[in-house]
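G., before I forget:
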Amino acid sequence: MTATRVLVLNSGSSSLKYQLLDMRDGGRLAVGLVERIGERTSRLRHTPSAGGGESRERTGAIADHDAALKAVAEELARDGLGLDSPELAAIGHRVVHGGRRFTEPTVVDDAVLAEIERLIPVAPLHNPANLTGIRTARALRPDLPQVAVFDTAFHTTMPESAARYAIDVETADRHRIRRYGFHGTSHAFVSRATAALLGRAPEDVNVIVLHLGNGASASAVRGGTCVDTSMGLTPLEGLVMGTRSGDVDPAVIFHLARVGDMSIGEIDTLLNKKSGLTGLCGDNDMREIRRRIDEGDERARLAFDIYIHRLKKYIGAYCAVLGRVDAVAFTAGVGENAAPVREAAVAGLDQLGLAVDPELNAARADGPRIVSPAGARVAVAVVPTDEELEIATQTYALVGKANS
Ligand SMILES: Nc1ncnc2c1ncn2[C@@H]1O[C@H](COP(=O)(O)OP(=O)(O)O)[C@@H](O)[C@H]1O
Ligand SMILES: CC(=O)OP(=O)(O)O
Ligand SMILES: [Mg+2]
């Protein structure tokens, strides 16, 4: 029997998203999510054959990513899709930080694991969870290729002028400080899907991709190649996020240490976990923020306005970086679902050729779609991301190559 299935694991700081795909047709045999890992109120939601089967839920404490993956393996086994299946060709893992070394999907061995571990200080919320996912999967199926697909890979094409910070070159090089960029799997997938939506080849299209999830980042993609992105050494820089501040004056950190008497660890936690929308109004979920705005809540309104102001600045900046822009693509949880965010982000940018058609923008639909008025110079599009499919495709291509 030829093994044609790939299990994809996307481990976040407190969540584990997974999909089992059949690579003959990209069909989903199972999808699921474990949330609030490490809390007493963890929840696993498992859906066999996405769309078809009945979802099952488990609640109750799931201590860590090791326990989460074991619970997922049990759910898969209940549907006859267990990790022991001979039809499983590989397990593909999203790994957030690959530094400069990993520019391609990579089969994991001990040396690769050690390098992912070395990069923990520059992806403290993500790489530890990614590592646990890989180690547990390896223990469950030691014979199976485990493939790491890196968030940073797509951004390695950025020119030095975009990737280097203007700090002392020797210090920067010694500590490998530069802009790496993240969510690359999504930026790659969405920029290609946007070109397809326009009916053009990726090489002919310049796209600004706005990946607005809990973490959020923008990228400027010229002819299929990333030329700039908003996240930096770590996934903290750039846009306002669910709990992360995005851009601040770096001197804020010195000030908090000297005048606010905070430790570096406390400031790290402040900027990564207690800032962004949460820090501004107490909520990180855009649905909740919109609900509060509708009720006249001023703090939620200001948080939304700050979020939009930053987004607009990046759209303007990337118009300047690209020179010619063919499309602006909104993606991920907020980008795909929050019509008011898309409308506000391009409001007043008609000089740049950007506008949305209110009806098209407000309409609900599943697939990629254009929401700018007919004949607009720049297409504004909603393009659902599919990091899992992209990871599965890259994983299967690599394993297939190794086997042929
Ligand atoms: N219907 C919706 N309307 C507005 N925002 C939404 C909606 N659904 C999801 N979101 C936003 O999307 C976020 C999650 O996005 P997602 O891309 O899944 O993030 P992540 O992968 O970082 O967990 C939520 O925190 C919420 O702010
Ligand atoms: C890199 C990053 O920010 O990822 P996420 O949005 O999954 O937190
Ligand atoms: Mg995400």
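The mean pLDDT is 95. The CA atoms of residues 42 and 263 lie 31 Å apart.

More on Monday.
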